[in-house]
Amino acid sequence: MAESVALEELLTHGRPSDFPVALRDGHVLGFAAFQARAAGWRAAFERREGRRLALYFEDTYEFAAALLGAWHAGKCVYLPSDVQPATLERLAREVEGFAGQVPASLSPLVPEEARRSDWRPLSSGARSLVVYTSGSSGEPAAIDKHLGQLTREVHTLGRLFDARVGDARVLATVSHQHIYGLLFRVLWPLTAGRPFLARSLPYPEELLAELTKGPAVLVASPAHLKRLPGTLAWERARGSLRAVYSSGGPLPTEALHACRTLLGQAPVEVYGSSETGGIAWRQRSREDDAGWTLMPGLEVRLEDDALAVRSPHLPEDSWFQTEDRARLLPEGFELLGRKDRLLKLEEKRVSLSAMERTLVAGGLLTEARVVPLQEGLRVTLAVVAVPTAAGGRLLTEQGKRSLNQALREQLAHGFEPAVLPRRFRYLEAMPVNSQGKSTEAALTALFDSRRPPLRVLEQGPEKAVLSLETPASLPQFKGHFPQKAILPGVAQIEWAIQFARELFTLPPHFLRMEVVKFQQLIVPGTQVTLELTWSAAKGSLHFKYTSEAGTHGSGRILFTEVHG
């Protein structure tokens, strides 16, 4: 195994010129080439005034070179999780420059031919990074990181896992634009001397092919691990897979089972946050192994039944209060869910968290989220939930109204009638973003007035059939075609994606559309059947709208784990 080198001294200390840093398209990218690329980025960044710089790259090797080049140019790097227009608009007010796959209108910097090869150690106290929370209840919040924090966390990962992983290649399905991917996919491999694959592996076939090439470690998310198709020959990869890491959200039981069955091992789950860094880890041999083991050098205590942590991964030696309820154990703790989210409704204080716990405890739901909806001048509560097998049978056999009523009756024992939820949505899986989080904005959008009334006629893991009503009151009919009310093709595509996300577990990012056709118009009052077919192996969603008049529209939409 290679010598470990701290981030501050990586380019100063150096490694042999042909030492493998990354793998791209079958080629090994050595340390001398990496140093040269970092120098080119440093030269470009040194010419730009100001310290704040936003980086967004799809290629992890290029990102790593730009990141080191920026730090050695004295810059603080901002890491957006995507390059959506709203994200870039916000960033443009915060930074003085951009680099990577961003629009040309932002004048992204490009590396220069650099002759300088002198490198000085970086300062551990430098404000080097800004990452963002997932924005689960609002606008993402910026979190500053000093280089010393990152170095200490990478050192912790090395103490815990270097012996297990050795010099295995690092493969990933998660983005380096998030703190988990940055640490496990870039910084830890760089300091440990472990080569990483320059591209992400969003598709299971690609992942399996890479795993069969030799010793490897997989850095993944719960959303990806629960979509591993059982039809692939995963047994071919078990001998070379040293470890699987999972973070970014709770690992569902089905994902744990899939990893044990298909990959031959349980993932190493890592618990932490953008603010705290890593806090604890576990590897469950049984699903009732609920305890988390503290990382070295950390302390925890309970404050109002919620976990507080003191950690070298934090900027100061003080206690950080989390929102996670916990029970302390001799070597760590057990998580008991999020702290109560209190809301004043009808002049009464309501715990949304307690309501969610009551809903799940009733045995009809595996997951439940309660969200407030602003309806006119009043606020009402709504539930987004994933039914259990028993809940699914009730929904199928007796209908949505019966399941709604059963849940309201469960809640009536502990909550007053005036605060009970009025609206419900039942999904195959909770909608998650690229960080594996179900944001309140995404959950609230399920109750949008733009959503047509529908019934699920058929539902399976790869196919669903829905019956949609298209009343004239739908806002999609208004304003597009003044002469005649017609449902636009963009609305049909929007519905296909929206309902597919509710019924299947799709990757977070849209990639492209193929063979999209609109053969006949959909006018108000048309009873439409929407057929959705999902292929997880290909990341492909096929949609088809039909009625008594024939086919109205069809096409294929491709999705990916990484933003393109």
End-to-end separation in angstroms reads 34 Å
Q: What would the principal axes of the Cα set say about the shape?
A: globular
Beta content: 25-35%
Uncertain segments of ≥5 residues (pLDDT<50)?
A: none
Strand ordering within the main sheet: 8-10-11-12-13-14-18-17-16-15
Mean pLDDT: 90
Which structural category do the helix and sheet elements fall into? alpha/beta
Helix content: 25-40%
Largest sheet: 10 strands, mixed
Radius of gyration from the alpha-carbon trace, in angstroms: 25 Å
The total count of helices amounts to: 14
Number of strands: 29
What is the subunit arrangement here?
A: single chain
Written account of the structure:
This protein is of the alpha/beta class and 564 residues long. It has 14 helices and 29 strands. The strands form 6 sheets. The protein has a 10-stranded mixed sheet, sandwiched between helices. Strand 15 (299-303) and strand 16 form a beta hairpin. Helix 2 (31-46) packs across helix 3, helix 5 packs across helix 6 and helix 11 (389-398) crosses helix 12 (400-412). The longest helix has 19 residues, at 147-165. The two termini are 34 Å apart.
Which helices and strands appear, and what pairs or packs with what?
Blueprint: H1 10-13, E1 20-24, E2 27-30, H2 31-46, E3 52-56, H3 60-72, E4 76-78, H4 85-92, E5 97-100, E6 127-132, E7 142-146, H5 147-165, E8 169-172, H6 179-192, E9 196-197, H7 204-211, E10 216-220, H8 222-225, E11 241-246, H9 253-263, E12 268-273, E13 277-282, E14 291-294, E15 299-303, E16 306-310, E17 320-329, E18 332-338, E19 342-345, E20 348-351, H10 352-361, E21 365-375, E22 378-387, H11 389-398, H12 400-412, E23 423-426, H13 440-444, E24 454-459, E25 463-468, H14 489-503, E26 509-518, E27 528-535, E28 540-547, E29 550-560
Helix pairs in contact: 2-3, 5-6, 11-12
